[in-house]
Every structure is written in C-alpha cells, then in structure tokens.
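Researcher: Please predict.
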Amino acid sequence: MDASRLPKMMIGFVVRRCTVELGRAPTPAEFAAWANADPAGGINVFGRALSEADARLILRHQARLV
C-alpha cells in the first residue's frame, strides 16, 4: 500500500493506550519511555525514538491525525 494512502489515526488513541497501561495520564517523560519501549523486538510506536520534548508536543496535540 502506498504510504500516502495509509489510514490515519488520532495521536490521542496512542496516548490512551499508554494511559491504560500506566493507570493514569502520563507525563512527557513517561510517555516517551513508553513509546520507546520495544518489548516485542519490533519498531517504536512512532517509527523512531521520541525525546521528552517530542512527547510534550504530542501530549499537547492529541486530536491531530497521524
């Protein structure tokens, strides 16, 4: 499938998955650590490692489609 035609989802969906696993809303540092964790040996949640600054931005814009 062409990458420009991949389905999009809201960032909030990913943040909710983290929230469920933590049992509360994550801090930027916790969200970055969660997104960068690779328990199955696959790829990072966002395709690359997130910094805490990236996580802070993501947490502010959860309604954005990616």
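Model: The chain has three helices and no strands.
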